[in-house]
Each structure stands twice: as structure tokens, then as C-alpha cells.
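In this supplementary section we document a worked example of the pipeline. Step one takes a protein sequence of length 197 as its only input; no multiple sequence alignment statistics are reported here. Step two produces a three-dimensional model, which step three serialises into C-alpha cells for compact storage. The input and output of this example are shown verbatim.
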Amino acid sequence: MAGRSSAMATRHVRRRRSGFGGLEPLSPQRKWRAILVATLLEVPAFWSLLAGLVADATDEPGGPNPAAALAFGLALIPFVFLVLAVMSEHPRVPGAVLRAMGLALLVGIPVFAVVGDAVTGVVAGLGAGGISALRMDAHHNWRARAWAVVVACLYTIFLVAVAGALVLLPAPIFPFTALGIADHLSERRAEKAASAV
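The serialised model returned by step three reads:
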């Protein structure tokens, strides 16, 4: 009996540390405020990264310095994830930001290489990083968030094919908004399951 209670206590501590238990659920207003502020900070980083990638790919004089634009965009990304983690009240901000940076690179670079489209690569990287940076409550899950990032990437590919350069205007809102919608749908699904019982 003592072994069972200690195992349950250990499981409870793990859940509390991971943000799934022991914390009050984040209100939708706070979550969307965190997404909004992080997206506003993400816009200059997004456009700077794309300006650097485009300037590096073209040989036209008079464009921005590719190295400086890429460095500025990459320097802002950790602050984007930091704002997202802090404003969403993530229980372990430093670890979440480090994981977010790692995921952004691990996902964004291969997507850019496979698709050949910098906009989709940046959307994929920021969305993948946002999965870790945005606090996850009890009814949220990685799978729903990952699918949301996939849908955001497919939508970006479609817009790049149809609208061309105009996709640069709405693309920065896709990564974190997709995560917020995924969490909202997960919460609604959990509410329906609870009311059906």
C-alpha cells in the first residue's frame, strides 16, 4: 500500500512539474493575450529572416545585408518564445524556451530544405517551437498541436502557390494562432466528453 501511494505521489509531482496538474488552467483571455503579444514580437523576426534568406538567394545589389538580417531575426526568436512562455505562465520557462529553440531549428530547417519555400520553413519552425513554449494544460496535447502546425504549413504552401509574395502579410500569424485553435478544440472535446458521462 505504501509503495502504491509513493508511486501515485511521484506521478502527481511529475504531472505538476510538466504543467498538466497542480496549476489553475490558463484562461482563454490570458492565452490569447500571450499569443497576440508573441506574434507582434514575431513579425519583425519573421520578416527579417525572410529578407535575409531572399537577399542571400539573389545577387541584386541594394538589398539588405543577408547576414545582418538573418542575425537580427535569429536574435529575436528566443525573445518571442520567452514572451510566449512567460505570458502563458509556463511552469518551467527556461527549459521551455531552450526546447522551443531546438524544435524550431530541428523542424524549420528540414521543412525549408524539402519544400524549398522559406515562408513555410519559418512557419514550421516557429510553430514547432511554440508547441513547447506555450503552456500546456490538462486537456491539451502535443499531437493536436503538431497537427495544427502541419495544417498551418499546408495552408502556407497553398498561399505561396496562389498569392505569391502577398503571403508575407498574414504568414506571421499562422504558427501561434494554430496552436491556440488546437488547444481550444482540445478543451471543447474534453468538455463534450465530460458532459456525455
